[in-house]
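Researcher: Here's my situation. A collaborator sent me these components and asked whether they could plausibly form a single complex. I don't have experimental data yet, so a predicted model of the whole assembly would be a useful starting point for our discussion.
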Amino acid sequence: MTNAVEPVVVLEGLTKSYVVPVREAGLKAALGSLIRRRTRTVEAVKGVSFAIAPGEVVGFLGPNGAGKTTTLKMLSGLLHPTSGAARVLGFEPWLRQREYLSRMTLVMGQRNQLMWDIPVIDSFDRNRVIYRLSREEYRARLDDLTGLLDLGELLNKPVRNLSLGERMKCEIAAALLHRPQILFLDEPTLGLDVTMQRRLRTFIADYNRHTGATVLLTSHYMADVEALCPRVIVIHHGEILFDGALSKLIGEFAAYKTLIVDSDGGRDLSSYGEVVSRDGGRTTLRISKADTARVTAQILTDVSVRDLSVIDPPIDEVIDRVFSEVNP
Amino acid sequence: MKIFELMAVFFRVGVLGETAYRANFYIQIFETGLNLATALAAVAVVFSQTDSLGGWQPFELTALIGIYFMVLGGINLVVAPSLQRFMEHIVTGNLDYTLTKPADAQLLVSIAEFRVFRLVDVVLGAGVLGTSLTVHAVEVGWLVVAQFTAAILAGAVIVYCFWLILATMAFWFVRVENILQIFWSMYTAGRWPIGIYPKWLRWMLTLVVPVAFAVTVPAEAVSGRLDGDALVGAAALATALALFSRWFWRKGLAHYSGASA
C-alpha cells in the first residue's frame, strides 16, 4: 500500500538515547548527587524505520516505556534524534520550520493546551492568531468542528467547568483548527468513558475521511485500534516488533482460538480442549490454533451440536502475548 | 504586525482570566496603595531628619518611588508571570505544546500570561511621578522626556533579558525558582537611589541585578541629573543583553529538545 504513492512519514534508523541521572536511595546518595551526578544512557528508541502513506491511520502500540511517545516527539519536532533520519511531509521535523509546524498537530491525552480560567472559544481565538488563520477560514473550521464534535454548548464555558470528556473534545478541536495534514495522537482517549471514547473514535475516522489527513495514534485501548487502524506498528524496548495489518498481527500471534459450542444436554467437552466456561448447554473451549480445524470437525461428528462458532481471541490478549513472547 | 496581534490576543486572554476573579482587583488596589503609602512614609521620615539624601531632593525621591512602582508593575504585568509559568511548564512538560506552535517560542513564552490587575501599580506609580513633578512645578523639557523614555525603555529591556536568562536556566536545572528570589530581594533596594548604598552593593545593583538601570537611571533622567554616559551605558547594556539572552535561549531550547524525556 505504501508503494503506489510517496509516503508522508518516513523514518530511517531513528534512534534516541537519553542521559539520565542515577540516584540511589538514601540520604547519603542524595547529598552525594549534589556534588557529583552519576548518569547512565537509556536507549529509548533503537533504529526505528517505517513509512506511512498519505491518508493512512496507523496504530502505534507498545507497553509503557516502549518508545512510542519519544518517537512521536521526534516526529513532531520536540526532540532531536541521536541518530537516524526522519521526514514528515518532506520536512525534517526537529528543524521546527513554521511551514511544517502549521501543517501538523500533536495531541497528548494527559496534557492540555486550553487555558483553565477562560472560555474555550478564547483559547481557540488565540490559536487562530498563532496559526495565522483568516477570520473566514477560522469561522468555517470552527463551525465544522462544532458540528462534528457537538461543541455548541461548551464553547462559552471556562475550561475548569468542563468534564474530562468535554475538555478532551475541545482539546482536539483546538488542535485541528488549522486543519493539519498529519495528526500525532498520543493516548487521545485516556481516561474517558466508553461512550466518549467511541465518540472520539468516530470523529477521528470522519476527520480522516473528509480531510485525507494522515494519523499516527497511540492508545492503550484496543477498541480504539480495532475501530480506527487497519495497520499497526508494534514497538517494544525501542524496537519494532511488527508492522502490518491488524488482522495479520492477530493471525500471527494468536496461539489459540476460542470455540463456542451449543450442544444438547451440555455434554462434557473437556476431552477436546481446555474448558473456559460452561453455562447450561453452552461451552467455551480454548484450542490451540493448529488443532482448530481437526477439533472442530471431531466435535461436529461426535456431539449433536446446535450451534458452533470459532472466534479469534481479544486483541488485548494477542498484544499481551506479543510482548511476553519477546520478553519472557 | 504579527507580534502586536499576538500580544493583543494574549492580553485579551489575560483580561478574561483575571476578571474571572474580580476580588483580586480590589485586593490589588489595596496592596499597591499600602505599599505606596509605606514607601512614601519612609521618605517623609528620612526628610524630617535631613534636607537631602545623597544629593536627592524630597520630590526627586517621590518621583523615584513612582518609577519604582511603574517598573514593578511592568515586571509583574507580564514578564514575571509568563516566565514563572514557563518554568512550571518545563516541569510539567506542557512546554511541548508551545514548541509545536508555528511562532517564535521565546515570544510565546514571554507573553504567555498577562496579570492585568498589576496595571494598578503602573497607574498609581505614574500618578505619584506626575504629582511629584507638578507639586514642585518642575519644568519638564523635551530633552528630559526623551531621556526618560530612552532610560525606561533600556531599563525594561535589561530587566526582561535578565529574567529571561534566569528562566532559561530551567532548561538545564529544571527548578530554578529560587534564583528569582534573589531578584526580588535586590529589587526592593531600588526604592532608594542606589547612590546612597556602599560601593559593593552599588555594583551588585548595577551589574548583578540591574536595579540601577531599571529605576535609578530613569529617575535621574526625570530630575535632570542624568549624565549622557549613563544613558549610553544603559543602551549598550540593553543591546548586549538582548543579544546574549537570545543566544542563551536558543542554547537552552536546543538542550531541551536534545534531552527531555
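Model: Some features of this prediction you could bring to your collaborator: Chain B is about 80% helix and 0% strand. The radius of gyration of chain B is 19 Å.
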